[in-house]
Amino acid sequence: MNIQQLEYLIAVDNFRHFAKAAEVCCVTQPTLSMMIQKMEDELGVKIFDRSKHPIEPTEIGKKIIEQARVSLLQLKQITEIVDNEKQIVKGSFILGIIPTIASYLVPEILARQQNQYSETELILRERTTTELISDIMKGVVDGGILAGPLNHPDIEEIPLYYEKFYAYVSPLDKLHQEKEIDLSLIDIHNVWLLENEHCLRGQIERLCKMKRVDSNIAVRYESGSIETLIHVVDYNPGITIIPEMHAMGLTEDQQEHLRPFKDITAVREVSLIVRKDYVRRTMLDIIKTLVKESVPKSMQDPKLKEYVVNL
Amino acid sequence: MNIQQLEYLIAVDNFRHFAKAAEVCCVTQPTLSMMIQKMEDELGVKIFDRSKHPIEPTEIGKKIIEQARVSLLQLKQITEIVDNEKQIVKGSFILGIIPTIASYLVPEILARQQNQYSETELILRERTTTELISDIMKGVVDGGILAGPLNHPDIEEIPLYYEKFYAYVSPLDKLHQEKEIDLSLIDIHNVWLLENEHCLRGQIERLCKMKRVDSNIAVRYESGSIETLIHVVDYNPGITIIPEMHAMGLTEDQQEHLRPFKDITAVREVSLIVRKDYVRRTMLDIIKTLVKESVPKSMQDPKLKEYVVNL
DNA sequence: TTTTTTTAATAAATTTCATTTATAATTTTT
DNA sequence: AAAAATTATAAATGAAATTTATTAAAAAAA
Questions:
Q1: Superfamily of domain A92-161+268-307
Q2: According to the CATH classification, is domain B92-161+267-304 in 3.40.190.10?
Q3: Residues 6 or more apart from A307 whose CB is under 8 A from it?
Q4: SS3 call for B259
Q5: Integer distance in angstroms from CA B11 to C1' C10?
Q6: Does the beta-carbon distance from B85 to A60 stay under 8 Å?
Q7: A74 with B74: Cβ contact below 8 A
Q8: Could you tell me if B62 lies within 8 Å of chain A, comparing CB atoms?
Q9: Among A66, A307, B16, B145, whose CB has the most other CB atoms within 10 angstroms?
Q10: Crossing angle of the two packed helices A59-85 and A3-15, in degrees rounded to 10
C-alpha cells in the first residue's frame, strides 16, 4: 500500500468512475484499475462493488475510504508544517461562516483580502454551526466563523469580537414608545424568530429565557434571514432581536425602531475556529487580522466577554 | 514522499544512527541516506543535524517526525480495520496497567491468556495513570487498565469491575477494637499512604476528605507498594486503606485486621481504556473477557457504580 | 433483439524509482 | 597520526508503477 494508491482510492470514491478519477489523478484508467485491485488483493477484501452502476464502495470499503481520508489529511499536514515554518503562505483557505454572521462580514473581508493579501486565496462557504463543526473535523474546510463558545474538545476557538443584541421594535407595537426594552415584558407571541437551525435563534431564546412550545402556539412565520424578519416587523406588530453588525446596516428610518435592553448588556461572541491540530498558523493569523480589521475596535474589547449569552 | 520513507524517518529517529536503523528496516545504509535526503529535498528543509553525534533532528525535523508518527498510526489503522472486520485477531496487544491493579490482575490474566487465547500475544506494561494516557494517545500501547472515570475527550472507557475499599488497621492501634471504621475518626497522621504518583492515593485522600499538607507534617514514610504499607501497619500503629482485590490475597492473620467502613460503601471503578478511534474491537473484546473472567462476578455489579470515589 | 456506447479489466512494453554494491568523504576514537 | 566508525555518492540492478493497445462486459440506444 502506498500514498498514491490511497489518493487513487479517494478519487475513485469521489467520482464513482474510474476514467474520470484517472483524469483528475493525471494517469490513465488502467493504472487506477490495477492499483485499486492491488490494494484489494493486499487487504484481502473488495473495496468497490463494480456490479453497481455507478460503482459504489462495499461496507468495508466505506470504512477503508474513511480511514484513508484521515490518513491523507494527516500526511498533508507534514508539508503544511514545513510550509508554515518557512512562513510560506501557500494554497487557499476555505472558511465556513454561519449565515447570520456571513451577510455582514463577507463583503468586508473579501474586499480587504483582495487589496491586502491578494497572494492568498480565500474561499468562503456558508454553513450552519452543525455543518461547520462536521466539515472542520473532516478537514473539508480549514476554519470557520461562528458564535461561541463551543467547548468542543478537538476544536480551538479564537475570539474575534463581541456583538451586542438589540431589539428591533415594530412601530405598530405598543413597546415602540419605550426607550429601553425590559426583557421580562416581552411577550413570547410577539417575538419573530429565525428558523430553528440558526444558532442565533437559540441565543435569543436563551436571552429571553423562553422556549416556544410549538405544539400549542401557531407559529405564524419563521424566517431564514434577519433581513426578512426586519421587513416583517416593519409592517406587523411585534419585535425581533438583531445583532449589532446588522443594526449598523439599517436605514435611518429603521434605526428609529432600534432599542437597547433595559439593565442588561447581552452579546454574542464571534470566534474563528479550527481543529486543534491545525498547522497553517501563519495563514490563520492572516485570516484573524483580516476579520479584526473588518470590525470596529469597540466590538473587540475582551471585557465584553462577561456578557456573552451561551447556548 | 512515500510511506516507506516515513518509516525510514522514524527508524532513524529511534536509533539516531543510519546503519542501525537500516538493519531494522531490512535495507542497506545508503538506502536510508538517500531516502532521507530525498525527503529533505522535497520538503526543502534539513530534518537531521548530522554534525551532532549521534545525529539529532532539527527543530523542524522534530515536528515533521511527530507528524510522521501520527500519519503512520492512522495508516496502520486501515489494515487494522480490515483485520478486525474479518474477525482476524492478529498481532500483539500491548496493555498498560497501573501498579495498584497490576499486582493482582496480571498473574490471573496471563494464565488465562496462555490457556484460552494462546494464539494472541498479550504484552503487559506497568504504567502510572499519567504515563498510560500519554502512551495511549501516542499509540505506544493499545489499551490500559486503570481506576476511572477519566472523562478524557479522546479516550473510551469500558468499565470492568468495582473494587471496594477496606481499612487495614494495625493491631497496635486503638481503632483495632472497632468492628467498623468511622471515616470521620481517622486521624490524618495515622494513615499510611502510597507515593503521590499513585492515583489510589488520590482516591483515598478524597475518601477521607483530607489533603495532607506536607509542609508542616513530617511524612514518616510513603511507599511505592501496598504490600509494603501492610507490613508497616503490621508493626506500627496506624491504618492504611487497601482495595478489595488486595484484601483477598491477605493471610488469615492479616484478614483479622481488615475493617469495613461505617455507613458508607466506597469503591473504585476499574476500566479498560482505549483511544476512541481504536479499531481492533475483536481483540478488545478478548481482553475485556479475559479480565472479567479473572474477577469475581460480585465485583462486576453495575449498581456499585454509584459508590465510586472520583478523583 | 441487435447494435452501439460506455466502462472496467487484462497483457505486454516501457519507464520510473527504490535499492544494492562498491567506494569515497568525513568525523571520532585510539 | 592511524584506525575505526559513520554518512554520502556513483553506477548498476531490479522491482513496481505506468502507458499503450486490446478485450470483456454491461448499459443504453436503435
A1: Periplasmic binding protein-like II (3.40.190.10)
A2: yes
A3: A162, A264, A265, A266, A267
A4: strand
A5: 39
A6: yes
A7: yes
A8: no
A9: B145
A10: 120
Q: How far apart are CA B173 and CA B233, in angstroms?
A: 9
pTM of the model: 0.88
Fold match flag (A92-161+268-307 vs A163-259): yes
Given this structure, which CATH class describes domain B162-259?
A: alpha beta
Chain B contact present for A88, CB below 8 A: no
Beta partners for residue A240, in sequence order: A168, A192
Band of the pLDDT at A70, cuts 50, 70, 90?
very high
Q: Which of B104, B259, B112, B270 is nearest to B171 (CA)?
A: B259
CA distance B261 to B265: 7
Chain A: residue whose CA lies nearest to B44: A82
Structural domain boundaries in chain A: 3-85, 92-161+268-307, 163-259
Strand D contact with A3 (CB < 7 A): no
Contacts 24+ apart (CB under 8 A), A32-40: A32/A8, A35/A4, A35/A5, A35/A8, A36/A5, A36/A8, A36/A9, A36/A12, A38/A5, A39/A1, A39/A5, A39/A9
Protein-proximal positions, strand D, CB < 7 A: 6-11, 17-21, 26-28
Joined together, the cell numbers standing for residue B265 give 460503601
CATH of A163-259, one of 2.40.160.20, 3.20.170.40, 1.10.3210.10, 3.40.190.10: 3.40.190.10
How far lies B250's CA from each of A188, B225, B244, B255, B259, in Å? 68, 14, 10, 6, 13
Q: Cβ of A27 < 7 Å from strand D? A: yes
CA B201 to the chain's CA centroid: 15
Indicate the residue type of A112. R
Which residues are within 8 A (CB) of B49 and not within 5 positions of it... i.e. 6 or more apart?
Answer: B55, B56, B57, B58, B61
Residue B287: beta bridge partners? none
Reference A11, options B216, A23, A181, B189; nearest CA is A23
pLDDT exceeds cutoff 70 at A57 = yes
In the DSSP assignment, the letter for residue A92 is: E
pLDDT in tens, A239-265: 888 899 989 888 898 998 999 988 878
Which residues neighbour A148 within 8 Å (Cβ) at sequence distance 6 or greater? Answer: A157, A159, A269, A270, A271, A273
Residue among B43, B70, B81 whose CB faces A79 most closely: B43
CA distance B144 to B166: 25
**A208 contacts chain B (CB < 8 A):** no
B207-259 pLDDT tens trace? 776 655 554 555 567 777 888 888 888 888 888 888 999 899 888 989 989 99
Domain B3-85 has CATH 2.60.40.10: no
Dihedral sign, CA of A223, A209, A243, A256?
positive
Report the DSSP beta bridge partners of residue A123. A94
CA angle A147, A150, A151 (to 5 degrees): 155
